[in-house]
Amino acid sequence: MKSAYGLALVILAALLMTVGAAAADDPPTNRPSAHPPNSLGLGIVSAPVPYRGADNRVLPIPLVELYYKRLYVQGILAGFRVLGDDGLHLDLRVRWSFLELDPDDSPFLEGMSPRKSTALGGLALEWNHRKLQVSGTLLADLLGNSNGLGGSLLASWREPVMNGRLMLIASLGVAYQDAKTIDYYFGVTPDEATQERPAYVGTAAWNPTARFTALFRITPRLNLVAYLAGQSLDNEIRNSPIVEDSWGYEAVLGVTYSLGSR
User: Fold this and answer.
1) Domains of the chain
2) Burial of 125 (0-12, 13-18, 19+ CB in 10 A)
3) pLDDT digit string (tens) for 126-174?
4) Taking the complete model, does pTM exceed 0.85, yes or no?
5) DSSP strand E in 21-165: where?
6) pLDDT tens for residues 70-119?
7) Phi, psi of 235 (to 5 degrees)
């Protein structure tokens, strides 16, 4: 599989159906206790790859939301409500991160060892108050590829317009990746170093994030979803000799069908 920056797919469009946007590197969930309708759909995601010489990716993606009591699945994210209610709750979460490095993606990366995508798991705390949602996550690499730890803090504001037919969500936050994560995905070992690609050891990074989501109800069951997010990459990522971008972004456009009434 070709390299893709984790943020670009981490917020897979199933999460766009939620009333809050997410993070970074890890998006907030909908509310299982409120029994929202299950939904299925299809979308397209576009995102650049930060590695030098690597092409952008445009991929079709399934949009899925499934809920059963305290369990839920939203695209590449699955969770379990540990305690709390719709106002304040704590969840266990597991999601897939698509951040990886494939030496075949670019001639500049030739000779480097692959960096694998991985599963991330941990805790998510979320607070909802009227139109405001604040969420924080702490997730670790469950497969031991980087042995890293990451987190996010995100505030989202929801604004229904057109008599509730259109939901607009704006979010601001920050994503954290520890030194092990940065060194694994953006570091260059002495064995991989060349004259054009010097050795590099990464340290922890904080990446500011802005996101915008729009959900338009075409019919009572059919919805159009659009999502755009941008992330300013920390200097610890920018300074890596295998990185050429200072910004990451992702854009998603899709259609979903609700299997139950809202």
Assistant:
1) 6-258 (2.40.160.40)
2) middle
3) 999 999 999 999 999 999 999 999 999 999 999 999 998 999 999 999 9
4) no
5) 39-47, 57-68, 71-74, 77-84, 88-97, 118-129, 132-141, 149-161
6) 999 987 899 999 999 888 999 999 998 888 899 998 999 999 999 999 99
7) -55, -30
